[in-house]
Amino acid sequence: MLPVFFIIPIAIVLFFVLVAVFQWLWNITMPQVFDLRTITYWQALRILIIAGILFGGSHFPELNFKM
């Protein structure tokens, strides 16, 4: 098992890469299909956060303690 101090930086880097990929996909698709403007990196981050709140729900497992 990998130590936490190794996993957290990797998760942060992967998150920022995900945002950059989302921005790239948006900027090559949406302006052509729907005649929308291109977005910046920070706008892509905000869209992903809003989408996660609206559609993602909680990814934490429920703790079911039985007594």
**If helices are DSSP runs of H or I spanning 4 or more residues, what is the number of helices?**
2
Radius of gyration (CA) equals 17 Å
The average pLDDT score comes to: 86
**Major sheet details:** none
Give the SSE string: HH
> Count the strands?
0
- Sum up the overall morphology in one term: flat
Fold and architecture overview:
- The radius of gyration is 17 Å and the shape is flat.
- It contains two helices and no strands.
- Helix content is 70%, strand content 0%.
- It has a domain at 9-54.
- Helix 1 packs across helix 2.
- The chain is an all-alpha fold and 67 residues long.
- The mean pLDDT is 86.
- It starts with a helix and ends in an 11-residue tail after the last helix.
Provide a compact summary of the structure.
Helices cover 70% and strands 0% of the residues. The protein is built from 2 helices and no strands.
Summarize the topology.
Layout: H1 4-34, H2 41-56
Helix pairs in contact: 1-2
Key phrases:
single chain, mainly alpha, 2 helices
